[in-house]
Structure formats: C-alpha cells, structure tokens
Amino acid sequence: MKLKDRISIVTGASAGIGEAIARELVAQGSTVVLNARRKEKLDLLLRELGTEDVSTVAGDCADDDVINSMFHAAREQFGAGHREANLVVVNAGRGLNGSVVTSDTSEWEAMVRTNVLGAAKLIRAAAVRMIREIDHDAANGKKWTSQPRDIVVLGSTVGRHISPFSSMYGATKFAVNSLAEAARRELGPKGIRVTLIEPGFVVSEFQGVAGYTDEWLKGVFEKIGPVLEPRDVANVVTTVTSQPSHIHWGDVVLRGTRQDYP
What is the pTM assigned to this prediction? Predict the structure, then answer.
C-alpha cells in the first residue's frame, strides 16, 4: 500500500497501459478517477475494482468540461470536498502508422488534439490546482514535503529517437516530451514532480488501432522480444510516485532488453 491516501487521475484508462496503471494504483492504496472515451469499458473496470476506490468520467480527454469533471470527481468523491488530486497520469494517446509522407492525413488533427492538446490541458489543470493547494498549505504552516504531488506524462522512445515509420506520431511525442520537461523546470521548484516515462514497444491494442499489420508486428516482436507489457510500465509509475516527496525520478526510458531502436 505504497500510495495510501493518494488521489489519482488516469486518462486513457480503458485498455493497455492506462488500464494497467489504474489497477496498480488501486492495488497500492490510491483512490482513482478513470477517464477514457469508451464508457462501457470504464463501467466494467468500475464494477471490478469497486466504487469505494474508483470513479469514472467518460469523454474526450482534451475537452475542458471533461477535464474539470475529472478533478471535481477526485475532490468531491475522494478528497472530502477540499483535497485535490495529487497524482495525475497523462496517458491518453493515439498512434498512427506512417510518416509525414505516407500516413493518413485525415487522422492528423485528432491525433494532435489527443496527444498534444489533451496532454497540455491536463498538465495545466493539474498544476494550477496543485499550486493553489501548496500555497494554501504554506499559509497554514504546512511544508510542501508533507504531501507528494506528481504529474506523470507518458511519452515514447519515438519522442526521443524519431522513426521514419511513425514520424507523425513521433512528432507529437517530441512535443509531449518537451511539455513535460518544461513543466518539470517550472513546477519542480514549487514542490511538484513532473515525470516523463518513455516506453518502447509495449504489447497492447495500441498497435492495431494505429494501423500496424499483424504480420509486421509479429516480425518486430520476434526480432526484439520479449517486449514490454502494460504492467511493466504501471510498475514504473507506482515506483516513481511512491518515492519520498523530496526525491524525483524525472525521466525514465523503458525498453525490452533486446530492443535496440528506437
């Protein structure tokens, strides 16, 4: 129960890495507000994990009303009406096979909206509320070290080493990585940890939705496998956020051992 008394928000929680993070946070004692577009998937998780520890807000992670609803649910259902979420996982993302030359241009705007605008809006919403709470605590003589506050951003190794086979997606992850590092420099001195986690290949439905063929994936996984599973990333999230508040793991690159690139 490393995260007992933490109040978390996770976007993109209906499958894959987001679902695994949600499960691990609950297992480690946190209460969690889950967000995804697919309400039916969230309802299944809610029934399984229980309403005592989990609340759900379905909808577009880049929509201002949906974002406000996540923080409202965290405060009202788990924060006794005054404590804000103190562990926010910016996970929701869309993949896209292909380069700037070959990828489907009709998918570009939706991907940028989710991967970049959605991430930026959630980082901002979390930061504003955390700063306000820190200032309130300071006015009442409470030190920032008494309560860890984390914003965890899911990037990608292709946001560090661009791949020509997914350069449009990779470009959005370069943007996300820059947002996370800039936020770290701005918010760290205030007592808020911003952690960027950059996984390599992870087995999930992500690749299929992004348009990668089963044959291509099989070849890649045979070459570099075994690759990561969602729970491997979830374990990193809970390890990073369970550190004492004065310790910050700011940037974690996570790959399967045999993955050489990206």
Answer: 0.96
